[in-house]
Amino acid sequence: MDNYRITKLRAYLFEIINTLTTNRNYQINADMLGNVDDFSLDKIPTESVVTRWISGVEIHRDVYSFRSRKTYSQDTINNLKNIGFFEDFENAIKTNNKEGNLPDINGIEKIECLNSGTMLSSDNGNTAIFDIQIQITYRKDNKEREVSLWKKLLQKLTLPQQMAENILQVKKLK
Asked: Angle CA(84)–CA(85)–CA(86) in degrees, nearest 5?
């Protein structure tokens, strides 16, 4: 479970939230929004592959809805704090991205907020659900595809078998 991208993203989000608030009485769940001040990290179904190169390298993305349940009322100050939290959150993500402080995910290239945090709905007049979308972009190397391409190329060049094997060995594809 520790190797899942969502698990590593969750750990990263704990670090960010802990710098933005003194409240440590919260949880980051997956696909489940619990109590007031809790968060939920929900994967949004999207096309995963963004770019595919002939070499076998692929750029992928995961998009998540990062939701929170906050107190909500006619108190303007409280509601401004709720939206302000998501503004601070977005700025922290931008700063971390620029500084290369990224989640510990294999091949990760960047993390970004796709929108500003906004209120989605009010539950019962006392709480509201706020949401911001997060996207991670990461690189995957497909060695099998690269090996296949090199083998096809070497076959077209009609090289002796031993020479082709040596080239694959030098490329560390064998």
From this structure: 90
Which DSSP state fits 48? -
CA atoms of 40 and 28, how far apart (whole Å): 5
Given this model, what pLDDT does residue 10 score? 95
Amino acid letter at 114?
L
Provide the sign of the torsion angle of the four alpha carbons 70, 45, 53, 154, taken in this order: positive
H-type alpha helices, 21-107: 76-99
Q: Could you report the per-residue pLDDT of 68-88, keeping only the tens digit for each?
A: 988 888 878 888 888 889 999
Supply 71's token pair: 């107190």
For every residue of 117-174, which 3-state class applies, written as one string? Answer: CEEEEECCCCEEEEEEEEEEEEEEECHHHHHHHHHHHHHHCCCCHHHHHHHHHHCCCC
Compute the average pLDDT of residues 149-153. 64
